[in-house]
Amino acid sequence: MKHFSDVLAESIIAKRSVVCVGLDPDLAQMPPELVAGFARSGGGEEAAAACAEEFCCHVVSAVAEVAAVVKPQAAFFEQFGPPGWAALRAVVRCAHEHGLPVILDAKRGDISSTGRAYARALFGGAELPGGGVADGLAADAVTASPYLGEDSLTPFTEHCAQGKGVFVLTRTSNPGAATLQERELDGRPMYLTVAELVRRLGGGYIGEHGYSDVGAVAGATAPEALSAVRAILPRAFILVPGYGAQGGSVRNLAGLRAGEAAGVVVSASRSVIYAWRDSGREYAAAAADAARTMRDDLVGVLEA
Amino acid sequence: MKHFSDVLAESIIAKRSVVCVGLDPDLAQMPPELVAGFARSGGGEEAAAACAEEFCCHVVSAVAEVAAVVKPQAAFFEQFGPPGWAALRAVVRCAHEHGLPVILDAKRGDISSTGRAYARALFGGAELPGGGVADGLAADAVTASPYLGEDSLTPFTEHCAQGKGVFVLTRTSNPGAATLQERELDGRPMYLTVAELVRRLGGGYIGEHGYSDVGAVAGATAPEALSAVRAILPRAFILVPGYGAQGGSVRNLAGLRAGEAAGVVVSASRSVIYAWRDSGREYAAAAADAARTMRDDLVGVLEA
Known about the structure:
Two copies of one chain form a homodimer. Chain A is α/β, with parallel strands linked by helices. Chain A has a single domain (4-298), classed as Alpha-Beta Barrel (TIM Barrel). Helices cover 43% and strands 14% of the residues of chain A. Chain A contains twelve helices and ten strands. Chain A has helices spanning 4-15, 32-40, 44-63, 74-78, 81-97, 112-123, 154-157, 190-202, 223-232, 270-273, 276-279, 283-303, and strands spanning 19-23, 69-72, 103-108, 141-144, 165-171, 184-185, 188-189, 214-218, 238-240, 264-268. In chain A, a hairpin with a 2-residue loop joins strand 6 (184-185) and strand 7 (188-189). In chain A, helix 2 packs across helix 3 and helix 3 (44-63) packs across helix 12. The first copy, chain A, is globular.
């Protein structure tokens, strides 16, 4: 079974891109004529989910050439009920059809049989009456929250042997990181304790490109934090949100390079998928342009 | 709008019970003849979800007389895809039909527009094309993870003004609590910093019974931790998992009482809903007996 980290590394190398396009379908930010079309087709949750699916699949298709990976955010689909969950599954399938690996941003975390049920929901594998297993969302990797501790992450990392990946929240890009993550624990910021946990969990899952299948989420808004996380995690992919709309910048990524594939994926959602709002162009074309600009802006991370 | 905390307090008083029945539908622990019936009806995700729904609704109906509240665990439904999400919604509806408030155990947490989307998914309120809003899962309260910080909890607590409740993970009942929660932060265990955050977030949402709509999750496996959390949170409902299958005991709950309604709900899942496995009786009747035994075992918490 090919390692998730190798799939991701090879996508980065092939595209010469560390761009991760976040898929956060928000009807209020989509072209009104697109949403109006679905309103005419009947409205309701089904229409909302179909609209989210169409929007995301068109964006995926348009950015496929320049994005290394895509990151659908589960909440934006879950808000539309069962049809929303079906739309999320369809968006994952659409990304796979375009050769894009999928990091499902779900930030789950629970222990024991519950943790394993979350892993089955996101990766697949639930046993069904009469035999066979459920497909789940068929994500390639997921984001996971470490608050419950090590035994809330192992239900996900156990799937690394089947080609899956996990990105553990470490130092996020929001002001609330000050509430816990940046607080001093054993004489240093707490997120470094999490980074060490990530290293321990990922040590047994190293791919041919030298990267682990267990990575870390660390935000572009805190450059010192990023460097400190990299120092503890030389072999981890770091998923960096906060580029674009949240105010992170490429300068904050200097020094993060860890190998041929850079060891970093940089995520932007709103600034790419809703780029049409500034340019007035067709939304998928505008998203492709924004993703291309972002790739070029970040190519230095690959060449540093 | 009635406070969630008042709904919960009145349910506890009416039932003379602090029992929360956790609904974790696991086909492998259900009566084989029940699962086989759904296998014959076609199998697949639909059959799995229908089986989970029927099992949970029968249990809800049987325990309604002695349980104060029920707590469906999202992962066990999500593993069955869109039909699983629909089954979860049906189980919430079934609980409401039996007059039971619902704490949805989802352990979500994210910031900004994403956090608000999670809140809409669990509580309802997503705007739909053509007007109207989605029902969401219509939960009365949710569990939330604090790792991302204060701004990942406010998207949930903002719903308290509309009669909703939030239980913030504080000191959980698993061994992994040692990874972060019990570590020393500013000279005391980190979970107490979270408890203070819960107090701050809940201060503006106090119901007529004197309890806040923002509560804390603290496990029965750590009695000192429970007492320390209560000392910081005199007006919070504490949701105590780990009773029963996880090894907690009623002795650990001594001293937690905070008022007429005790201020505590104690959760058990497997030891109640799969009680048929030990007794060999019909599963819903066995669950009702186990819930009644648990209520009687815990009645001291109300009378202390």
